[in-house]
């Protein structure tokens, strides 16, 4: 992509309305534009990151045996009357009427609809387990939308739903998602800690929030430092087997959000030097809730003995659009964003220091082609901006690598390469620069 053709409306000034760094940087880097409170248009740079995150989530869901569907954003209120949630959900639900005066709503989540889809065809334990997910926009009329995409009203979520014949099998489904979540956040360069969450009126011990630590997090969290350092199990696993041990390794360590925190237990279970009290951002949330929806909505399956019972269900959410902000909270410096390689909007920013100079233009073309041939996605700054402004923009938008090409280097047969994350620089011929980037 050539910057002269791209749409990158960077802001020179720090927007006054943005209270946290990710919101400021997303506005300054021209990633999003607010269209109404908590409702954003995704501009090209932001959209590229959103799509990368979405792709990682999709890959890890598929690997763990979940199957993608796409449910609509608008739902019939009648479906929610079956579960009783139409009246319970409250002011966060956006209610709409169509021309026939039928009650609709913009989905804040999809338990009811997926249960309806499931019950329309699945009858027997032989068809289980099943895990259906989609990546779709949600609307929740939050009282206080804030922090940009971190707490929006319209936001993109991956929500998945598991169906099993009994609790033991449902726990295996839960474990698979638990492990898949650890892997997917790790692939985005995040350190995440699963923390026991309140299961509310449903009860039980199976609900975890996946939290990344950041000063600007909305909630206070407490955990054993070793949990954060432990890292992800990796993808080379028997996904059809029981992953309970991997889950137990982590859930045996203390980790709790403010609502679940017990200071006495914390002090008893965690050595003083390992006690971590920090702010956290919730980037995912998983639940096992049994027959909460399947019973009232009559999603019944026959077991091996022929008797029918309600399917045992769980739900699994990832805040896809929130992750764009969360990753920035976790990875930035004074100059701007520092994208982890896996979610970067482009892999390399090539800076042409003298557009219009035939030799420099040709060297930039050569570099661009060579990068593309390596499967990398470059952004070529071919604009007439001052050098200082070009460097500032590249640092702001945070591409993992910068390649600076100017007349002096061209005469000497070298380019200047910079690693955004560390600030390291190398002056070297193009082939070596390419080798350095491909690592
Ligand atoms: N208003 C929002 N804006 C952006 N992302 C959100 C919002 N609400 C929830 N999410 C993301 O979706 C995930 C699943 O949502 P869920 O746990 O159902 O929501 P909540 O924790 O608000 O009840 C959350 O972990 C979070 O990452
Ligand atoms: Mg939650």
Question: What would the keywords be for this entry?
Answer:
BirA Bifunctional Protein, domain 2, binds adenosine-5'-diphosphate, alpha+beta, 439 residues, 5-stranded mixed beta sheet
Task: Describe the protein.
This protein has 439 residues and is α+β, with helices and mostly antiparallel strands. Helices cover 32% and strands 28% of the residues. The protein has helices at 21-28, 44-63, 77-83, 85-88, 111-119, 167-187, 225-229, 244-251, 263-269, 320-330, 358-373, 387-397, 407-412, 430-438; strands at residues 32-36, 39-42, 67-68, 74-76, 94-97, 103-106, 130-139, 154-164, 192-196, 207-213, 219-224, 255-257, 275-290, 300-302, 308-310, 312-319, 332-333, 336-337, 348-352, 378-381, 401-405, 415-419, 425-428. Strands 3, 7, 8, 9, 10, 11, 12, 13 and 16 form a nine-stranded mixed beta sheet that branches. Strands 20-19-21-22-23 form a five-stranded mixed beta sheet, sandwiched between helices. A three-stranded antiparallel beta sheet has the order 4-6-5. A hairpin with a 2-residue loop joins strand 1 (32-36) and strand 2 (39-42). Helix 1 (21-28) crosses helix 10 (320-330) and helix 2 runs antiparallel to helix 6 (167-187). The mean pLDDT is 96.
Task: Give the structure's gist in a few sentences.
This protein is of the alpha+beta class. It is built from 14 helices and 23 strands.
